[in-house]
Each structure stands twice: as C-alpha cells, then as structure tokens.
Amino acid sequence: GDSVTQMEGPVTLSEEAFLTINCTYTATGYPSLFWYVQYPGEGLQLLLKATKADDKGSNKGFEATYRKETTSFHLEKGSVQVSDSAVYFCALRGGAGNNRKLIWGLGTSLAVNP
Amino acid sequence: DSGVTQTPKHLITATGQRVTLRCSPRSGDLSVYWYQQSLDQGLQFLIQYYNGEERAKGNILERFSAQQFPDLHSELNLSSLELGDSALYFCASSESPGRSTDTQYFGPGTRLTVL
Lengths: 114, 115
Hints:
The structure holds two protein chains of two kinds.
Chain A: E1 3-6, E2 11-14, E3 19-21, E4 23-26, E5 32-38, E6 44-50, E7 56-59, E8 62-65, E9 75-77, E10 86-93, E11 102-104, E12 108-113
Parallel strand pairs in A: 2-12
Antiparallel strand pairs in A: 1-4, 3-9, 5-6, 5-10, 7-8, 8-9, 10-11, 10-12
Chain B: E1 5-7, E2 10-13, E3 19-24, E4 31-38, E5 42-50, E6 53-57, E7 64-68, E8 74-78, E9 87-94, E10 105-106, E11 110-114
Parallel strand pairs in B: 2-11
Antiparallel strand pairs in B: 1-3, 3-8, 4-5, 4-9, 5-6, 7-8, 9-10, 9-11
C-alpha cells in the first residue's frame, strides 16, 4: 500500500543554516504531496503542497519539489530561523480510488538554535 | 487560523469515564476527519465523515465512536477511558475528498488527559 518515509529526527541546526528534510513515498497512480508543520503546543498547519510531478510547492521560504523519478518530496529552506523550530510532517494523498485519505510520515522534529 | 474549531481545548478526566469532543469544520467543507496524536504512536487517522455519512475508518477503537450532524459539525465520543487514551485529538476538514488535490485543514486540537 501507499506509504511515506521521512528522515528521522531530531534535527538541530544553527540559525541561518540550510535545511533539508528528506521525504520519499510509495504510491500507485499520481498522488498529491503535502508538508504540514506543527509548532509547539499547536495543531497541524499546511505548509505547502504539490499536486503533480515537477510541481514546486513553496511557502514562508520553504520549498519542496515533487520528483516522480525519485519518488521524493524533500523539504528545503535556505536559511532557518529560531521560529522554524517545529515538527514537520510529510503526507501523501493517493491518486486513485475514492478512499483518498492522507498517508502520513512519522514527523521530523527541528530545533533551531540562535 | 485554519477555520476549523475544536472544543474543549483541554479535558482532564478519570479512567472509565466518557467524554465528547466537538469539531466545527471550515465553512463549505463537507468532510471531517479525526486523528489521534500520541507520543508513542504518532499521528493516527481514526475516522472520516462526508456530509453526515461515515466514509473511511482507520485505527479507531470500538470504545470510540463519532458522528457528523446535519449542520456538518462532528463529535468524537470516547468511552471507558484508559490511561493510554491520553493524547491530542485533532479534527480536520476538507472540501472535496474525492479529488487528489483536496487539502485537509486542521483544528487546534483537544488535549485529553486520563488520570
């Protein structure tokens, strides 16, 4: 079945460092891909999404490109801030059938130090 | 603010008790999803409703039940509570779950503590 694999955390970076959080997936058809972020004590917020191959989602300086050839959707940011400290979840929604529930990765915790 | 509201924000109760969590979806969204987030099991999908009808079931225990009302708000009922039910419970809503581009928007969650 469909699945999402995220790199394990925690990831600890200094402010202004480059961030990559790896996400790979297994899916039939043409899924849509999502990154959600959960700040401490809060709910999940949609960070960005991509709905077809080669699409690039971007928001708040974060980017992720839907790579069908490598089945990946890695999250990147050129210069992280302390306020980016959160847990990041990669997810996919299957492209076939009516039961298109979100399939979630386990989450990657990011801590950014000043 | 996602537009999804959940009440209460915190709930503390004892083992064996029953609680009800409430969710109001974003305006125009017909589908509601419930998730459980715990430290040991991560984010678990529980159940989905669409326009009042159950659409999909995930890892929902038999002690748990949910429903979606005609005004589209949803309630998650947890009964015979156990210590292990302590978790964050999230509600999400979406407009068109049949489309692969459909996006779920999450509420702030209800933190349940079972003592």
